[in-house]
Amino acid sequence: MKNEGRVAVVGCGPAGLMAATVLSEAGLSVDLFDTKASAGRKFLVAGRGGLNLTHSEPTGDFAARYGNNAKTFKKFLAAFSPDALRSWLRGIGVETFVGTSGRVFPKDATAQDILKIWLETLGKRGVTFHYSHRWQGFSQSGNPLFLTEDGTLREFAARAVLLALGGASWPQTGSDGRWVPILAAKDVHLEPFRPANCGVEVAWSEHFRTHFSGKPLKNILLRCCGQQAVGDVVVTAHGLEGGPVYALSAIIRDLLEKNESVPLSLDLKRDLPLERIKEKLAHRHGKESLTNFLRKTIRLTGPAYSLLREICSPEDLKHPEGLAERIKNLTVPIVNTRPLAEAISSAGGIAFSQVNADLMLCKLPGVFVAGEMLDWEAPTGGYLLQGAFTTGHLAAQGLIKWMGQKTRP
Question: What span, in angstroms and rounded, lies between the C-alpha atoms of 155 and 203?
Answer without folding.
Answer: 50
